[in-house]
Amino acid sequence: MKRLLFILALPFLFTSCKKKEETAPAPDLSLTRSSYSDLKNWDNDYQEEAFQAFLASCGKIEKENKPFLPIAEIKVSTRDYQNLCQKAKKIKPQDFKKFIEQNFTPWLVSWKGSPEGKFTSYYESELHASKTQSEKYKYPIYGRPDNLIEVNLQQFDKNLPAKRLVGKVEGNRLVPYDTREEIYNKGAQAPVILWGDDYIDIYIMQIQGSAVAKMDDGSRQRIAFADTNGREFKGIGSILLEQKLLKPGEASMLGIKKWLRKHPDAAARHMNKNQRYVFHRFNDATGPIGAQGVALTAGRSLAVDRQFIPLGALLWLETSGPKKENIHKLVIAQDIGGAIKGAVRGDYFWGSGDDEILDLAGRMNSTGKYYILLPNSQEAAQ
């Protein structure tokens, strides 16, 4: 099998020379060329389900003007992808599988020699809300703050890492933005887009990134991720386990939600130990909007660490679900998450719904692997 090694200190260099592979130190991130026969269930997966999601990502990629899909260590040629997107627009959904086989090559992603990583799941939650503040609807759902400032270090010095910093100005200094606890106690300098009736539901929405609001007038309003306060994320499950308030095996999202509701006086205190705060906006799309800016597709969208995986990339996922069922299918990197860190790490989008969906999504915590599908023309250019 041919192996493609990524020299992370020089991310634009690739090598496929066998002699080089034997003599050079193995980098942390590596790709191993594979074939479609290596992909479990490839012939039985219904790839047509992913076709429209792929075209949605294409709509964003076609607007890119950088040589590589941005940010990720795995460099994917933007022009090659744009050319394939144009071809894909001319095919029928039932021909998508053949199109992939003819134009893409699967590469197994490994980190420090291992292809195994952690795969969890998330979903689009529900909550009750109103446009008007009242005794019932008293918890603010904030839009992006007016005083939130974003800084990219590379705009000041190309030698600095491509790290996004979030803060606010105090006097003549840029300082970190307020923590969750500070926002909870003092509020935020931000527009209130809606008022919710339950802080726990708002908190879960922030973890999931989006929600469907059941409005007090009977209508439904989809709410999407807008930004964060830039603070460190810490999962509520980890917080409750550290405090020995939950036992190992009880920290599913549904189990966490039940505990928080049973202990309302302590709930806010423990939730506020997670410094990360998420701000939202209205979304009129057909599904929740991921970090790539497209509506997510249940069972076909994956949140990844974009330090390694470029958004829009096709991935072949091999892991298992909460009932130990196999999840071997084509997915697309269309989202990110505060807890999704690592070269082989993914958060599977389960869909939208109530506590039943929450239970399924919250219980998924599996080992697995994935292959990234790279354009054939890119390999020829290495």
In words, what does this structure look like?
The structure is a single chain. The protein has about 375 residues and is α+β, with helices and mostly antiparallel strands. Helices cover about 25% and strands about 30% of the residues. The strands form 2 sheets. A 6-stranded mixed beta barrel has the order 5-17-14-16-15-18, surrounded by 4 helices. α2 crosses α3 and α8 packs across α9. It is globular and about 60 Å long.
Low-confidence stretches: 1-26
Number of alpha- plus pi-helical segments: 11
| General shape | globular
Rg from Cα: 22 Å
Through-space gap between termini: 16 Å
Helix content: 10-25%
Total strand segments:
18
Structural class, from helix and strand content?
alpha+beta
What is the percentage of strand-forming residues? 25-35%
Largest sheet: 6 strands, mixed, barrel
Give the strand line-up of the largest sheet. 5-17-14-16-15-18
Order of helices and strands: EEHEHHHEEEEEEHEHEEHHHEEEEEHEH
Could you tell me the mean pLDDT? 88
